[in-house]
Amino acid sequence: VNQVFESVAKKYDVMNDSMTLGVHRLWKDILVRKMNPSPGTLLLDVAGGTGDIAFRFINYVRSVRQRQLQQRLKHHQNLSWQEIANSYQEDKRNSLGDSQVVVCDINKEMLKVGKEKAQDLGYSEGLSWVLGNAEELPFDDDMFDVYTIAFGIRNVTRIDLALQEAYRVLKPGGRFLCLEFSQVSNPLLSRLYDLYSFQVIPVLGEVIAGDWKSYQYLVESIRRFPPQEEFKAMIEDAGFFKVDYQNLNSGIVAIHSGFKL
Amino acid sequence: VRFQLSPPQRPLQASAVLRRVSDEQKKEPLSSSSQQQFDSQPTDHQPEQEPQGPHPSYTGQGGQESEDYESEEQLQHRILTAALEFVPEHGWTAEAIAEGAKTLGLSGAAAGMFQSNGSQLVLHFVSQCNTKLSELLEQEQKLVQQGEAEKKPTDQFLRDAVEARLRMVIPYIEKWPQAVSILLLPQNIPSSLSLLTSMIDDIWHYAGDQSTDINWYTRRAVLTGIYNTTELVMMQDSSPDFEDTWRFLENRVADAMKMGNTANQVQSTGEALVQGLMGAAVTVSNVETCRAVR
Q1: Same domain, B111 and B129
Q2: Which stretches make up the COQ9 C-terminal domain (chain B) (predicted)?
Q3: A107: domain CATH number?
Q4: Are residues B127 and B187 in the same domain?
Q5: Which of B14, B105, B108 sits opposite A145 (nearest CB)?
Q6: How confident is the model at residue B172 (pLDDT cuts 50, 70, 90)?
């Protein structure tokens, strides 16, 4: 698995866009909207290599924080100009409201690409990049408010271990969110999807990234991944409560959510 | 009818938050996940937990899954109750729920368990108020039965009950319009409507309404109208201690009583008429029988 991602790291984003015809952006947007993070949230994004979820999280929290500050100003309308200006100063320093993202990935190359992207896009504060294995996270217990893993868990050898680690590092009340390819229920769509996956994607892989094998592996790993209900049971086994899933695009992708209670 | 969040599932066992429930420890903040046994203060050692304390539950059962452990639903109720404190500041929103969760020692992410539009928070509050009202009316009734208080005349009783119920909203009055609009959302209407009707039913029950005829419906419709209009008046009332609202309420209840009397008069006139007709029919048949015998 490691080798697969070393070779695809640089072309990862481009491949994502071409394979899913850009729809993966929408899926990730939906994931962050579902998370609905408030300022002050500490997020751990596992297998988050190139930072897609992390950047979306930061954008979301920033806009929520803006709204909060505006609300506060409305209540401050009877303050003097000086006091209002002073409050701007404080709040500017805190545009994220103490929210933070830790991006953890097993692969150095992916993290490197992510860091460069962050610099290019101008994300400076609130981001940390850590090398780590989902089956054995380098973090202490009860640390994070939210744990996300987007399109990463199917690449983990021992999914149950990853789930247990997720449970361990989450604070009580914390949320586990997993965005992953899943089983399509609709038979017609399923046939079209299979056709597309096995015929088109490896070809794209060869053309764009020069790597047929990796993308063949990708498609096969998607097929091997347990279906929604089974994965839900696995999450419950790890100790999570209120486990639920939401199908996107009638099952091509599913978001599983659980709480550590 | 009670508002239910979700069917209770398996008990929450090896977890930090869902701890063994006991009366005194209900309000304590929670500690780390490694602790199974919950000790609140060193001086107050409770080795054995009693079953479920007087925590108001909104489920059909006693709200207990297994003997000592709390269920998801009870935890959700606790979070929502804790969130009410933050409603005046944040409104009926997921932010208030997140703040409430934090006071219980949970991460703010726990607010993700609830709908993001705050519906469950509002419904929880309304349900809680209705329960409080029932308890209040129950206590009053007990006092009357024990002879320690006088039975109030119906109009006074209704006025007091509605006032008591509406006063519970006063701490949240600034955000109440938001709550009402949430209750009127199409997806919430079944729940909010059933909460409203059961509250009105309760009030009439304790008012001593024994009717089983058309009056049952008219009484409920009338009181629902009085309650809703008074609520609306209260939302834009700025008089000291809402005196304008209570005066409005008094007038509406008086109107309703007057109307009720008229209805009764109509009914008794109708009854008298029917009795008259029956009497006439009996007389006629007797006369016929007599004539036949003769």
Answers
A1: no
A2: 189-260
A3: 3.40.50.150
A4: yes
A5: B108
A6: very high
Report, in angstroms and rounded to the nearest whole number, the Rg of chain B calculated over CA atoms. Answer: 26
- ipTM of the complex in this document: 0.83
Q: How far is A39 from chain B, CA to nearest CA, in Å?
A: 10
CB < 8 Å to A239, chain B:
14-15
For A140-180, what is each residue's pLDDT tens digit?
999 999 999 998 888 888 999 999 999 999 999 999 999 99
Q: What 3-state DSSP class applies to A107?
A: coil
Q: Same domain for B262 and B124? A: yes
Give the helix ranges, DSSP H, for B214-242: 214-235
Kind of pairing, strands A253-259 and A241-248?
A: antiparallel
Residue B49 lies in a domain: no
Among B107, B114, B115, B117, the residue to mutate for chain A (most A Cβ within 10 A) = B107
Residues spanned by the domain of B260: 119-271
The pLDDT tens digits of the residues spanning B34-75 come to 333 333 333 433 333 333 333 343 443 433 333 346 788 899
**Token code pair at residue B261:** 């009397």
Give yes or no for a contact between A146 and A43, defined as CB atoms under 8 angstroms apart.
yes
Sorted by sequence, the CB contacts under 8 Å of residue B196 that are 6+ apart come out as: B224, B227
A126: left (phi over 0), alpha (psi -120 to 50) or beta: left
| Nearest of A34, A39, A61 to residue A123 by alpha carbon | A61
Count: domains in chain B: 2
| Domain assignment present for B33 | no
Considering the entire predicted model, what is its pTM?
A: 0.76
Which of B33, B72, B104 lies nearest to residue A142, judging by beta carbons?
B33
pLDDT in tens, B116-159: 889 999 999 999 999 999 999 999 999 988 888 888 888 889 99
Residue A171's SS3 state is strand
Looking at the structure, do residues B231 and B255 belong to the same domain, yes or no?
Answer: yes
Tokens of A188: 């017609």
What is the span of the domain harbouring residue A134? 2-259
Does a structural domain hold residue B276? no
The closest CB to that of B112, out of A35, A40, A171, belongs to A35
Take residue A66 and report the two structure tokens written for it: 């803006």
Torsion of Cα atoms, A173 then A179 then A181 then A184, to 10°: 70
| B12 in A contact zone (CB under 8 Å) | yes
Q: Would you say B114 and B94 are in contact if contact means Cβ atoms under 8 Å apart? A: yes
- Total domains present in chain A: 1
CA distance A24 to B10: 35
